[in-house]
Amino acid sequence: MISNPEFLREGHAIHDWLNPDRIVIGADEPESTRYLSSLYTSLDAPVVETDPTSAELIKYAANTFLALKITYANTLAELCEHIGANITDVRTGIGHDPRIGNTYLDAGPGWGGPCLPKDVRALVSTGTRTTTDLGLLHALLETNAYHQRRIVTLVEQLLPRPLTGARVAVLGLAFKAATNDLRDSPALHIANLLAARRAHVTAYDPAIDASATPTAGQLTLTESATAAVAGADVVLVLTEWPEFAELPWHHLARDMRGDVVLDTRGKLDRTLLRGAGLHLRTLGEPFSEIAAARTA
Ligand SMILES: NC(=O)c1ccc[n+]([C@@H]2O[C@H](COP(=O)([O-])OP(=O)(O)OC[C@H]3O[C@@H](n4cnc5c(N)ncnc54)[C@H](O)[C@@H]3O)[C@@H](O)[C@H]2O)c1
Ligand SMILES: O=c1ccn([C@@H]2O[C@H](COP(=O)(O)OP(=O)(O)O[C@H]3O[C@H](CO)[C@@H](O)[C@H](O)[C@H]3O)[C@@H](O)[C@H]2O)c(=O)[nH]1
């Protein structure tokens, strides 16, 4: 048996496959390793030759480490909000240290998709069959679920009315930009949590065909951002599609009932939104501006 894990990212599949950081080959027989290695001679990457169990563990361990980094960033972002620090600066400040690096530290609505959640759970499941202390990994899963629920709490805090009956416009349902994948998507999960709290949720994602996509909850999918945002008490950006920054916010603001945008990906232009008369709330930044507007 040979284990040959793949490390490409959705949305970058061809680039990542042609430019791998490493090739991992786990085989019991040297002949099998030699044969599989020969298939990769056109690619310029270090080859890690190992046994099948270690190869499988490399895959789970890599995805779990990425999940740990993201969750750490999300925890820091929440802390920043409470103590008046700025997550962007904190991230830059720690990221210059090459031992830490500056990737997978973007605060957001929790990690998801078809790979990270599955592989963290697989690592936990594998460890459960042993006496290994898995406290860190259990905490990772629990904390990621907490960070998704936290977005619902933030929406609730930003609304000038109860969440029940409020109109929430969700921009982005895919688990990240450059894909239409809804598997284990934090965005879809959060939208469903809001709908379960009896908010009226209208959602738009540029890669999701509203007419062809069944949703489990009470979500209304729309074919445009304009349609999703019309009448909204609050706009919630959950996927980092670049086009959301380019939306005609002046026009959208006129059709909204409220004046707050919660951008969980930190990609919108604060000056542009302010010019449109909207209050922008991001993760990991103090939000006194909105609190001041509410108490004025
Ligand atoms: N999605 C990614 O970006 C990505 C990246 C790297 C590695 N991987 C790994 O690749 C694998 C597949 O991921 P995916 O996202 O393409 O999943 P997927 O669910 O989209 O595709 C899996 C396919 O395998 C088929 N299948 C499942 N069991 C089968 C069986 N017993 N016999 C024949 N066909 C079977 C399914 O019908 C499906 O078409 C996973 O192990 C994943 O961890 C995925
Ligand atoms: O700084 C970051 C980076 C990512 N994410 C989130 O993390 C999740 C995963 O993102 P990404 O790694 O880009 O997605 P995948 O395409 O699922 O790729 C991961 O899973 C694949 C399948 O196992 C592996 O091959 C890849 O190496 C691994 O990056 C998504 O919800 C992202 O929004 C963040 O919140 N902040």
From TrEMBL:
<dbReference type="Pfam" id="PF03720">
    <property type="entry name" value="UDPG_MGDP_dh_C"/>
</dbReference>
<keyword id="KW-0560">Oxidoreductase</keyword>
<dbReference type="InterPro" id="IPR014027">
    <property type="entry name" value="UDP-Glc/GDP-Man_DH_C"/>
</dbReference>
<comment type="similarity">
    <text>Belongs to the UDP-glucose/GDP-mannose dehydrogenase family.</text>
</comment>
<dbReference type="InterPro" id="IPR008927">
    <property type="entry name" value="6-PGluconate_DH-like_C_sf"/>
</dbReference>
<dbReference type="InterPro" id="IPR017476">
    <property type="entry name" value="UDP-Glc/GDP-Man"/>
</dbReference>
<dbReference type="InterPro" id="IPR001732">
    <property type="entry name" value="UDP-Glc/GDP-Man_DH_N"/>
</dbReference>
<comment type="pathway">
    <text>Nucleotide-sugar biosynthesis; UDP-alpha-D-glucuronate biosynthesis; UDP-alpha-D-glucuronate from UDP-alpha-D-glucose: step 1/1.</text>
</comment>
<dbReference type="InterPro" id="IPR014026">
    <property type="entry name" value="UDP-Glc/GDP-Man_DH_dimer"/>
</dbReference>
<dbReference type="Pfam" id="PF03721">
    <property type="entry name" value="UDPG_MGDP_dh_N"/>
</dbReference>
<dbReference type="InterPro" id="IPR028357">
    <property type="entry name" value="UDPglc_DH_bac"/>
</dbReference>
<keyword id="KW-0520">NAD</keyword>
<dbReference type="Pfam" id="PF00984">
    <property type="entry name" value="UDPG_MGDP_dh"/>
</dbReference>
<protein>
    <recommendedName>
        <fullName>UDP-glucose 6-dehydrogenase</fullName>
        <ecNumber>1.1.1.22</ecNumber>
    </recommendedName>
</protein>
<dbReference type="InterPro" id="IPR036220">
    <property type="entry name" value="UDP-Glc/GDP-Man_DH_C_sf"/>
</dbReference>
<dbReference type="InterPro" id="IPR036291">
    <property type="entry name" value="NAD(P)-bd_dom_sf"/>
</dbReference>
<feature type="domain" description="UDP-glucose/GDP-mannose dehydrogenase C-terminal">
    <location>
        <begin position="169"/>
        <end position="270"/>
    </location>
</feature>
